[in-house]
Structures are given as structure tokens and as C-alpha cells.
Amino acid sequence: MKATFVTILRILLVFVTIALLGHGTTLNAIATFLIACIIAMDALDGYIARRYGETSRQGAVFDILGDRIVENVLWIYFACVGELPFWIPIIVITRDVVVDNIRGQALAEGKTAFGDATMQKEAWARLIVSSSWSRGLYATTKAVCFTYLALMITLESAGALSSWFIYLVPIKFLLVYGTVTFCILRGLPVVWEGRGYLLGSGLKETSQAK
Fold first, then answer.
1. For 117-163, how does the pLDDT look when each residue is reduced to its tens digit (9 = 90+)?
2. Domain tally, the chain
3. What 8-state DSSP symbol labels residue 118?
4. What's CA 203's distance to the chain center, in Å?
């Protein structure tokens, strides 16, 4: 329950953050801090689940659901206010829909996204998708990217962006494109090893085995 509470809190806070952004320098600064906290809480709920023995398949699915809501809300918001091209959230959401569809079908066969029962069979796939360093690096990349985007809005509202614009904008796009590239890279092994589910052969093989 503790880990689930953290996930629910993250979801609620991301909507509070969106409500604060764009309403003055002070509220923008608070929202920037909240974004950093929301992303950091992704690691916290996993730690709490392991610490108190609350790990379960349902908990892992709910954790991923929380991640999707938080990330997609932020991607869409920043695209709507012009901080990044709108095709960025379109790509990310499409990737998430495909990956989660495959994982949902694999879960019906007892295979999870991460952990000992992961659907990733090959070592290279587990390294890219479910290894601790990959998940940690991706979480850090998202934290830096989203926090930086909110910081850009805060600086702009404070009138402090004009003199630094030429330096800060290239960094912004480097973080955005780097995060999206990593997002796609981590999704490719899921699609490759789960292509049988997309093509309809995964469930067929399972039913024949039974």
C-alpha cells in the first residue's frame, strides 16, 4: 500500500504542477521543483515496495501506469506551450501504446516487464530494457529533461532568458532529443522479442502448448 500511495501521489502532483506552470515566476519555480520531486519519487516507490515486501505483478503494472501518466502529461504540456515540437509526444505516446500492449499480452502468460519473470529473453534485451543501470539512467534523463524545460519557462517568466537564450535552447533540444531517443531505444527490444504478440502468433503458440 505504501508504494501504491507514492504512485498515486505522483499522479496527483503532476496535475498540480501543470496547474502551477505559466502563472508567474514564483509558481513556475515551485512547479519546477515539483517536477524534480515527481520523477525522483519513481525510484522511491520501487524502493518502498522492495523494503516492505510489497512487490507484485499488479504493483509493477500500476507503477508503469503512473509513469505513463506523468511522462505523457508533461510531454503534451511542454509541446502545447511551444517548448518542443508536437511530434515528440506523438512518438512517445505511440511507443508507449505499442510497448504496453505487448507487455499486457505477455503478462497474461505470466511474463513481467522487469524482474525474474521478465519477458525479455536475450541478454542484450534485458540489458537495454530491464537492467538497473538502464532504468536508472532513463529516469535520470527524464528528470533532467523535464526539470530543464520547466526551468526554461521559469527563467522566461522572470525575464532572464533573453541574454542566455542562445546558450540554453541548444541544451534544451539536446536533452529532449536524447531522452526521446533513449525512450525509443528501450522500446525496441520489447517490440522485437514481443513481435509474436503483435502478429498474433504469441497467443496461438501458448494455446497450442496448453
1. 788 889 999 899 988 889 889 988 999 999 999 999 998 888 766 66
2. 1
3. B
4. 27
Cα dihedral 184, 38, 133, 92, rounded to 10, equals 0
Q: How far apart are the first and last CA of the chain?
A: 35
Q: Which of 59-68, 76-85, 201-210 has the lowest mean pLDDT?
A: 201-210
Question: Can you give the CATH number for the domain in which 133 is found?
Answer: 1.20.120.1760
Cβ-Cβ contacts under 8 Å for 183 (sequence gap 6 or more)? 92, 95, 138
DSSP 164: G
* Contacts of 149 by beta carbon, 8 Å cutoff, 6+ apart: 74, 78, 83, 84, 172, 175, 176
Domain residue limits at 115: 2-209
The pTM of the full predicted model, rounded to 2 decimals, is 0.85
Instruction: Give the span between the Cα atoms of 40 and 143, in whole angstroms.
Output: 7
